[in-house]
Amino acid sequence: MATALEVLAANGVEAMIDSDLGYTPTPALSHSILVYNAGRTSGFADGIVVTPSHNPPKDGGFKYNPPNGGPADTGVTARSRTAPTPSWPMACGRCAASHTPRNRRDTALRLCFELRQRSGRGAGSRGRPLRGLSLCADPLGGAGIAYWGRIAERYGLDITIRHDWADATFRFMTLDWDGAIRHGLFFAYAMAGLIALKDKFDVAWACDTDHDRHGIVARSAGLLNPNHYLAAAISYLFLNRPGWKRTRAWARRWFPPA
Length: 258
What we know:
Structural class: alpha/beta
Strand content: 5-15%
CATH class of the largest domain: Alpha Beta
Distance between the termini: 28 Å
Number of helices: 8
């Protein structure tokens, strides 16, 4: 992060960062990009994520999100710069690029508000389907460690939060099939810790390091296919949100159009 801010400042790029200098999940960054760019015809925002994502920690690096908020396609990632890149010392970079109050955003609070707006109603006392359910969220020491508590508080949810601290060693993770530390949340190896709690909670979620992938464990079925869970959730929203027009549709792409 420090290196990124130094380079951005030296190249005259204005940067916005989390209000508490904390971690920002990829979905929150994407949401901020879309909110900032809404209605604009120029001066668009884009974003940088510093993360190992779902890969082993040693594979960490920079991820670029273009103005459409989604992952960069191959037309972007194939480009490279080999010339030396100017940078400023960190002290100057933070002041010039992103340390003023105007350039610091409470992305967690804004995302919590938008969740209510998009869903059509609160998820707590008015969201009857979640009342009485025992829930668990495990950010696995990743970028969402400051988010789940805010969501639970805002919507009055009974959520037990696990591993909500940053640990660069990820020593609490169960090892993947090859002995590597990997947040491959589709697979039983990486989700073994949460699967062991299957009978303790009705539904439990876990997220990879940058929080754009999720794993789901339900008391009734164990480890679920996350795409199946998304489909069920979307079906419920379309059927139970009176403010949602029947002409709306939902689609998912792994990559945005070029």
